[in-house]
Write a structure and sequence with these properties.
Chain A has 283 residues and is an alpha/beta fold. Chain A is built from 10 helices and 12 strands. The first copy, chain A, binds a DNA duplex (30 and 30 nucleotides) through helix 3.
DNA sequence: TTTATTCATCAATATAGCTGATTAAAATAG
DNA sequence: CTATTTTAATCAGCTATATTGATGAATAAA
């Protein structure tokens, strides 16, 4: 009633909008004023105008209504069949700004659905899907097929070969297999010690690390060179904190395939369905 | 009722806490379940346990109660006589981390009072107090007394003389009036072109700027040297981005006096009173 | 001045919410 | 396994609250 009176500009108009009689609003506001211990409207003129106290308390009242509205929206969404939560497991290399956009969009479309994001290695993600620890996975393509899961190719993620600006490779006139050979390469390594063989290895001196962000730090400190997802190094290359190597044997950036992973048997609700489809346009 | 049932663990216990009869709670929850379109509790066992839907909706319900609580607190505070707003005008050089602590404390103690912070020069602040554009000011001491305002000395703000690490002054073995002379000094300048004469001037090459933050940037870029509030340069000196000059003619850091300014005639509410007192312990 | 609105007041009424008693089921104790 | 206690659902009756509808005073527009 309070906010409606402010919006409508008069008690009578608010009453009409609320489908009640004018005296109901008049008494309702009077009761609220007693409860809050403050005069909300100044009635000295024809139309009631907010007092300073009323103006201040209006913000708090609107905040209450906003929360009530969110409760109701959540209830309607749950009633419609939206899932209570969706657990998305992904390779940390896939956490790009474009993905953030998709997740923001998800939060708007499914306000009642809790979104849990889990970062893990490809093999761990497949295990999580199988054991119902995650609902949807996004991984680098695994060759082997699996009876329990549905895989869906969604695109390629470009990788750049990078080193620190102080690294000796920067001086090389041409990057060939031959002159990459003597330098330390840093390669991603899953938690289960089952190294992904998708990353090409060109060196005998290989260092393993378990996250792309860790690798980026190591490359920046000059320990070695590595292949890293484009979106993780683009800004750094611009800022001169990393140097992009262009191997002569790669005409285009090396881009491994990416796929989504879903359990075959489990039911798919509207939120999970939307998210799985949205991810198809990620790359 | 919903949150109370969750807290209490049973409808009967919740009823006792709410001062109602068990059947009231039982029906109340049943009605809420109809309204929300979801079963909140699983009654198959002796004590009702939250369903997954109930768990999810509980968060939203608690958010509603939180907002209602804040509305009620604000109303009580306004009823007690707390001001609806306090406008604090201060020299930007006085915006220190210690001040932030005081303002956070203020927000907790006076949740219904809007705090407006205005950054301005000393002379502008005094004008704002006189013209009722601000309730409380904090400025560097002004010599002249004024019949309309109450001034209260609260302490001294230490200033450091600083230059950029690349500045030629850094090489000087001793900083004397004589060797400061040929270098550009940057000095604060109010908006009304009435330069504060509290800042000592040692150079014929003087550049004026209208905020300490602007001066800091200029000093960092190597344009000249300046006196700046200690808290604004301490971190920068630590990080090596600024260099502290220790003039031989200053045994201690130069520390101009600071005062609070209040209008003499206007009434002082609890929030304004608290803030004026809290500022006395700032320096 | 007349007319149309506006808000406050108040008795009458409708209704949402509460009570108190009862029943059935589940946990606890013996 | 039974007796006791505790718990929740149901329902008729009651109560407090919200709402109505009528009235009067005040204000703005015609």
């Amino acid at each position: 009633m309070f906010t409606e009176c402010v919006k409508a500009g008069s008690f009578s108009a608010a009453a009409r909008k609320l489908g009640k009689v004018q005296s109901a609003v008049s008494q309702g506001i009077a009761n609220l004023e007693i409860d809050l211990g403050a005069e909300l409207f100044d009635r000295s003129s024809r139309k009631p105008v907010l007092t300073p106290e009323g103006t201040r308390l209006l913000y708090y009242a609107q905040a209450v209504l906003q929360q009530v509205n969110e409760l109701e929206i959540a209830a309607r969404k749950i009633e419609q069949g939206d899932e209570l939560q969706v657990r998305l497991a992904l390779e940390d290399g896939l956490l790009s700004p474009r993905l953030s956009d998709i997740l923001n969009c998800f939060a708007k479309l499914f306000p009642a659905t809790r979104l849990e994001i889990i970062s893990a290695s490809t093999s761990a993600i497949i295990q999580m899907i199988k054991r119902d620890k995650a609902d949807l996975g996004m991984t680098f393509c695994d060759q082997e097929l699996d009876a329990e899961i549905n895989q869906c190719f969604i695109g390629n993620l470009p990788f750049y070969a990078v080193c620190s600006p102080e690294h000796p490779l920067r001086e090389a006139t041409e990057i060939t297999l031959h002159n990459l050979f003597p330098h330390r390469q840093i390669v991603l390594h899953g938690q289960e010690r089952t190294r992904l063989d998708l990353v090409p290895e060109f060196s005998t001196h290989i260092i393993y690390a378990d996250s792309f962000l860790a690798i980026r730090e190591m490359v920046r400190s000059g320990i070695g060179w590595s292949y890293l997802p484009k979106h993780l190094v683009e800004e750094e290359i611009q800022a001169g904190r990393l140097y992009k190597l262009t191997p002569s044997f790669d005409s285009k950036p090396w881009s491994p395939p990416v796929e989504t992973v879903l359990a075959k048997d489990r039911s798919i609700g509207p939120a999970l369905n939307w998210l799985a489809n949205a991810l198809k346009g990620l790359l």
